[in-house]
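Title: Prediction job returns without error message
Component: structure pipeline
Severity: low
Priority: P3
Assignee: unassigned

Description:
Job completed but the reporter wants confirmation the result is attached to the right record. Sequence as submitted:
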Amino acid sequence: MGRRQDHAAVLRELPPPAWPAHLLDGSGLPGPRADLELAQAAADVAAPETVDALLDTGEEYLVLCGVIGLGRLLAEGTPGTADRLRRYATDGRWRVREGVAMALQRLGDADPPRLYALVRDWAGDPHPLVQRAAVAGLCEPRLLRPPGAAAEAVAACATVTGAFAARPAATRRDEDVRALRKALGYCWSVAVAADRAAGMPVFERYAALADPDVAWIARENRGKARMR
């Protein structure tokens, strides 16, 4: 078995009240990298009430585990889960926001059309961090292999980039907007690499906008090996 499966086997044997201490001990934090294999394993096997308990702790790593667990519940069709994830998409902790993207990718693995519909909705949300979650969640190479998936990713990047370009210059230094800009700085290259013939003309149309931040987004993506 791999590490993720090993972690899941251990967690299955632990009573839920013992999970927080076990997860925090194995989290890798404080440190440069959180243990995402452990977090994914927790999300694989946590009962819904355990997911809720992890979220309620407020501890960053435990909330990360719970948010990814919401992705499993979303894929299973648990009502109200998408709205809960949308709220965590605007969390002030970047690891929690990354957890939202990973949660959406679980939906993409299970039910691509549902993910596309959710991404279209979130891409139109006015909050920059909800928009960020939309493009970061979908722009994952493994999710862009099915027919039509790359077109959905390109369309999401176009929607969000257009909204970004319309933001007043005075807001561009806001932390949330900068986080969105950073995501767009790599998401376009993932979307275009999945279908270069269809995606490149759309990318170039937005890259030509007379906007310094959009020009930065274009340069970042052109510098990625997958774009070359």
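Comment from assignee: result matches the submitted record. The mean pLDDT is 97.
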